[in-house]
């Protein structure tokens, strides 16, 4: 970015100043280095505003035509990378406006009639965020499809289900994966919902109080595809709820992916050896030749901290601001941009990574056999034979203790041993003590039975279609 100094007269607000802004202050207050990414949306907003000014007879049709032509050229320059961004012109808005005026003269100076950078920037950010929310929704769907494919392959793959990270009960791997599908379903709903409140037009609020020109805000809203206008001018220029909501939805989404990552890291460690993450998502160690590190899930876990931090930054940014616009608001962009960038790339890489996961069914199954995972099934068996649940719980606890002493699973104890704990136990008990029997018996909506997992996947595919 070029930094050549403009003389004070060339700046849009310098008439009342008697000395130039200090160099360091210029750098401190400028936002063009990061808000230039709003350029396309700034131009979209300006075009809609100019058309409305023309329609209402506030500026001439000739002016509108000149503005249209000038902005089209500027957009082309920006897209070609030939546009010269000047730090002296502070932000994206003043850079584009100055270039327009250089190109078309007075018509360019008329564009800002009935508008302020305060309602302009709020409009730009909403337009950008609306498009970004749509991209996030595409990313979530893509990841959901990737989860469904993996879950489908493993609808009846048995693994230990954990509570407190201790083996609890056998579950199917497909069922486990579908838990993340549900989380992402809620995430998508949050972005859809947040998009609704993004989609209102601030333009027309001008600096804070509205404008004395006979503007038509509904027309601008319609042109820009907003669902309506922000109904209070003070709120319109100062509200950043939509940015906070987007960040909150992003933080929750990243938190889900962080939990998932923690599991991938554990499962891929040789201690578990449940899965293998494709080499292209891992790196080696520069000193230990045997290492294969799950860098991608680790970074997802790490980047979640950064996205959560941005949410806190935005909340803190807003908490002390009196109405209406304050320069503080300029600080909304970097956290928001970084949040969006992080979420979008994470979703894309995650979908791809899941497609590269190889599952070691033998190890998963072995682990499920190792922690008396079917103890609850034995209790349920006794209950079905008439024993009160609390008594059954105690009987099984004693049987487990016996198994621990002998170093064997419940399914490996001979019937005569099991019958020492309750005479209600018969040889049909072994059906419920197997892993397959255990998972198949949880056959209701939300349960881990392979039939239910397949039904859940079918419902999910229908939802996404
Ligand atoms: N760059 C500013 C921002 O991002 C634009 C609005 C400036 N308005 C003002 N009154 N200084 O918020």
Mean of residue pLDDT?
95
Largest sheet: 2 strands, antiparallel
**Number of helical segments with 4 or more residues:** 20
**Radius of gyration over all CA atoms, rounded:** 31 Å
Determine and state the CATH class of the largest domain: Mainly Alpha
Describe the structure.
With 465 residues, this protein is mainly alpha-helical. It has three domains: 83 residues, Fumarase/aspartase (N-terminal domain) (Fumarase C, Chain B, domain 1, Orthogonal Bundle), CATH 1.10.275.10; 249 residues, Fumarase/aspartase (Central domain) (Fumarase C, Chain A, domain 2, Up-down Bundle); 95 residues, Ribonucleotide Reductase Protein R1, domain 1, CATH 1.10.40. The protein is built from 20 helices and six strands. Helix 3 crosses helix 9. The longest helix is centred in the N-terminal third of the chain and has 37 residues. The protein binds arginine (ARG). Arginine binds next to helix 7.
What's this entry about, in short?
With 465 residues, the chain is mostly helical.
Distinctive features:
single chain, 465 residues, mainly alpha, Fumarase C, Chain B, domain 1, Fumarase C, Chain A, domain 2, Ribonucleotide Reductase Protein R1, domain 1, 3 domains, two-stranded antiparallel sheet, two-stranded parallel ribbon, 20 helices, binds arginine
Task: Give the SSE map.
Layout: H1 23-29, H2 32-35, H3 39-55, H4 61-80, H5 92-104, H6 106-110, H7 117-153, E1 158-163, E2 166-172, H8 173-198, E3 200-201, H9 217-223, E4 228-229, H10 233-238, H11 241-268, E5 275-277, H12 295-319, H13 333-355, E6 357-359, H14 361-369, H15 375-384, H16 389-406, H17 415-419, H18 429-433, H19 435-441, H20 450-464
Parallel strand pairs: 3-4
Antiparallel strand pairs: 1-2, 5-6
Bound molecules: arginine.
Arginine binds next to helix 7.
């Amino acid at each position: 970015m070029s930094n050549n100094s403009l003389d004070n007269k060339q700046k849009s607000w310098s008439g009342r100043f008697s000395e130039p802004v200090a160099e360091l202050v210029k750098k401190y207050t400028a936002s063009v280095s990061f808000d230039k990414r709003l350029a396309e949306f700034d131009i979209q907003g300006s075009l809609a505003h100019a058309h409305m000014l023309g329609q209402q007879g506030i500026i001439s049709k000739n002016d509108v035509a000149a503005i249209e032509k000038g902005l089209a050229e500027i957009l082309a320059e920006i897209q070609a990378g030939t546009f010269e961004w000047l730090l002296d012109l502070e932000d994206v808005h003043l850079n584009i406006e100055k270039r327009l005026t250089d190109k078309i003269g007075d018509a360019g100076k008329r564009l800002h009639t009935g508008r302020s950078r305060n309602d302009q920037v709020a409009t730009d950010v909403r337009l950008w965020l609306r498009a970004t929310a749509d991209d996030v929704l595409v990313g979530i769907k893509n990841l959901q499809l990737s989860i469904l494919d993996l879950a489908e392959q493993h609808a009846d793959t048995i693994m230990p289900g954990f509570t407190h990270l201790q083996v609890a009960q056998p579950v199917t791997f497909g069922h486990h994966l579908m838990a993340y599908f549900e989380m992402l379903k809620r995430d998508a709903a949050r972005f859809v919902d947040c998009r609704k409140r993004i989609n209102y037009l601030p333009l027309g609020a001008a600096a804070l109080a509205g404008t004395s020109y006979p503007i038509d805000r509904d027309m601008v809203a319609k042109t820009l595809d907003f669902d309506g206008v922000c109904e209070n001018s003070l709120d319109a220029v100062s509200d950043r709820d939509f940015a906070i909501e987007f960040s909150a939805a992003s933080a929750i989404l990243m938190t889900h992916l962080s939990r998932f990552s923690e599991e991938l890291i554990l499962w891929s460690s040789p201690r578990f050896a449940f899965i293998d993450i494709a080499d292209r998502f891992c790196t080696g160690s520069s000193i230990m030749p045997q290492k294969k590190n799950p860098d991608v899930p680790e970074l997802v876990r790490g980047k979640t901290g950064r996205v959560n931090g941005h949410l806190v930054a935005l909340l803190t940014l807003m908490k002390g601001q009196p109405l209406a616009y304050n320069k503080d608001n300029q600080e909304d962009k970097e956290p928001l941009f970084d949040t969006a960038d992080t979420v979008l790339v994470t979703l894309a890489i995650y979908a791809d990574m899941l497609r590269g996961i190889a599952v070691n069914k033998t190890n998963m199954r072995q682990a499920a056999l190792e922690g008396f995972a079917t103890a609850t099934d034995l209790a349920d068996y006794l209950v079905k034979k008439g024993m009160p649940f609390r008594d059954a719980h105690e009987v099984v606890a004693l049987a487990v203790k016996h198994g621990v002493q002998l170093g064997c699973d419940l399914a490996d104890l001979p019937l005569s041993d099991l019958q020492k704990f309750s005479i209600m136990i018969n040889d049909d008990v072994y059906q419920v003590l197997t892993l397959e029997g255990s998972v198949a018996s949880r056959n209701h909506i939300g349960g881990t039975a392979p039939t239910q997992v397949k039904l859940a996947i079918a419902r999910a595919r229908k939802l996404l279609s």
